[in-house]
Each structure stands twice: as C-alpha cells, then as structure tokens.
C-alpha cells in the first residue's frame, strides 16, 4: 500500500536528475585541475545528499497525508500478528457481538474451515 501512495512521478524525476548530475560530474572530473578534484567530488556528494533529503521529505509527506489509513492497516496487522508474531489469544466475543451483532457467529460456524497453525482471514 505504501508504494501505491508515493508520488512516483516526482521520485522518478529526482532519480533522473541524480543520474544526469552524476553523468555531468563524470564529464567534468577529467577537466578539473588536480587541486580541485577533491572539492569537485565533495560538491557532487553534497548534491547527492540533497537529492536524498528531498526524496525522504517527499516520501514522508505522502505518509503524513495518508496517516489515518496507515494507522488502520497497522491496527489490523497488530490484531492479526501482535508484536509481529503468532500468539495464542482468547478473544472475548462480547465486544464483537456488541458491534456486529450475532449473525457473524452463525456465518462462521457454517463455514467449512480447516484447522491449521497459521492465521488466515475469514471474510463474512
């Protein structure tokens, strides 16, 4: 999901600009006096760090704009795999009965589900 909300066009433009900058510096380096080679390399590194900074800011902006949706995904992920691992749990059914009614129990019992040691999602 995170990849789908990233502004890929802007990020692609930055990648293209980085590639062009690196190509230009490759052409420039042989033309520079030996005394300025180190400065030229340092300047190129500075530009590349600035592009990386801009990319991070663009990605963080996209994440901030979709923060609500990402929190919902994180909530579901934590419910399915708490602390990123399987855990034995005993759920209190009353919280689900209060919010969803009792039809989901009947629907769940009617399903032909196989028992396994892995989690899976049942859509009702």
Automatic annotation (TrEMBL):
Q: What InterPro entries is this protein classified in?
A: CC_BshC
Tell me where in this chain the Bacillithiol biosynthesis BshC C-terminal coiled-coil domain is found: 6-124
The name under which this protein is listed is Bacillithiol biosynthesis BshC
Organism the protein comes from: Metalysinibacillus jejuensis
Q: Which gene encodes it?
A: bshC
């Amino acid at each position: 999901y995170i990849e789908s909300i990233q502004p890929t066009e802007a990020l692609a433009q930055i990648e293209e600009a980085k590639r062009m900058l690196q190509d230009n510096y490759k052409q420039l380096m042989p033309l520079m006096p030996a005394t300025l080679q180190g400065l030229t390399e340092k300047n190129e590194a500075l530009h590349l760090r600035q592009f990386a900074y801009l990319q991070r800011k663009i990605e963080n902006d996209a994440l901030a704009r979709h923060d609500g949706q990402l929190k919902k995904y994180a909530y579901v992920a934590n419910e399915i795999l708490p602390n990123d691992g399987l855990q034995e749990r005993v759920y209190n059914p009353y919280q689900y009965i209060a919010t969803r009614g009792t039809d989901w129990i009947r629907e769940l019992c009617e399903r032909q589900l196989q028992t396994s040691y892995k989690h899976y999602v049942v859509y009702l």
